[in-house]
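Bug #77: duplicate submission created two jobs. Keeping one. Sequence:
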Amino acid sequence: MLETKKILVFTVAAWNSKVGANSWATLLQNYDSSNVANICIRDEFPDSDVCSRYFVISENKVIKSFVNRKIKTGFEINKKIVNKEQEDLQEHNKRYQNMKKRRRYSMLLARELVWKFGKWKTKELDEFLDDFKPDIILHSMEGYIHLNRIIEYSIKRTGAKAVGYIWDDNFTYKQSTNVGYKIYRFFQRGSLKRLAKKTNAFFAISNMSKKEADNFFGINSTVLTKPLNCEPVVTYDEIDAPIKLLYTGNLYIGRERSLLKLAKAIKKFPKGSFVMDVYTKTELPYKLLTEIESENCHVHKAIPQKDVFQKQKEADILLFLEDIDGKDAKVARLSFSTKITDYLSTGKCVLAVGNIDTAPMQYFAENDAAIVCENEVSITKSLEKIYDNPEIIKEYAQKAILSAKKNHDPEKIRKVFAEVLMSALKK
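Kept job's structure:
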């Protein structure tokens, strides 16, 4: 019965192969793509086959709608990129990168005002919603107030049942003591509470997330993690020098600082002991880049997901990075990065660097699924252990596989996913 229902998924980014944030696509990959649609709010272009229809509400055009109220801000797209849309993509990416670098809450509040008074509620959006006629709306409980507002509107217009996913801390005051953060978080919390009242069922990414979210929203969420991509097996032969470390993903919210700590630690070892390759779309400041890069550490531009998989096969160790002790050390406190499950799917050893008081690092530590480094001293000590005994790499690859099979069985996860969607339909 569920397979015949139409499912509309709201996301920030488009579903494309250059991002690893693909939880919804992974959960829905066994469904008929003709029954799956997506609405996103970034000027990006999809290439996922899990979904058949895509609608973009362009932030660039919403900004321009202040001057030109006749501008078309929302449009259904196919997978062909046209020149004008490519220009909007470039403008959006530049603005987004600048906001990420500075992280000024005044800018985030200004962005919300742009969306509140800009033109996003259009006949094109209404026509897309009315034509697709979703039975279920899936959304994450995001900190983007404007996206939450669009989701609320879509739930009301379509009459669809809604299921929310809590995979980040977007609702507590525990991440920072910054005054701007607290003001911005106040409005985020109100937005999420309003959306929660219109949502019929909830997933939580971890037990830690469930406990805090259930208490805050007055709900009973179901813990659901991302399923494995494939059956993991250890694929190592002999581990030869240099030992190859790999990181793929963005380097915001303090990850760049942890990468620098790791790069400095690698430089302490004899030439040819370790080599670290980083593939990212984050534009690092020149000074930081020169501190990180060396003959043993290389930073490259982002590559498509299919190429990421190949690089992971060639690597000895996969790197998981979060801020250790900087201003962003608590940002990931309730998160459970999709990267964790992706890494465990590879059958590779994981080296996790981050603040131990966060859900991802606690997961690795409690399951002994990675070599855990919570400060600069432990980074160096861990590399020393690997240098002295490379066989530890195979040992932790096997531990990662055990955790993967125990906690991320695809059949069990998709069964829970379907059961929650069915329960929402009955409400």
